[in-house]
């Protein structure tokens, strides 16, 4: 069943929508690389992978930061919260959205 996931930054200046064919299309994962640990300020990063074709910002325009390892993180220039990330290989196909910024967490398998 088609599903739309919505999320926002802390201050609501940025909002996004991710349309997926099924909740099974949104793969949630934990990443323990040093880059994610640093970005999330925790022992892992928790993201949900969604197809780029269904992802769009519905409010605002994010700032982008490219890390030395090629990972790009999109964030709010007002509150500093980052909403998604992607590597160079996934740039044209996927976005990894921050699980904690989603409104419909219960629709996604953890």
Automatic annotation (TrEMBL):
Domain of life: Eukaryota
Gene Ontology terms, MF aspect: carbon-sulfur lyase activity; metal ion binding
Domain CENP-V/GFA: 5-110
InterPro entries, per database record: CENP-V/GFA, Mss4-like_sf
SUPFAM superfamilies linked to this entry: Mss4-like (SSF51316)
Keyword Lyase in record: yes
Keyword annotations: Lyase, Metal-binding, Zinc
PROSITE patterns reported for this sequence: CENP_V_GFA
Gene3D superfamilies with a match to the protein in the record: glutathione-dependent formaldehyde- activating enzyme (gfa)
Family (UniProt): Belongs to the Gfa family.
Protein name as catalogued: CENP-V/GFA domain-containing protein
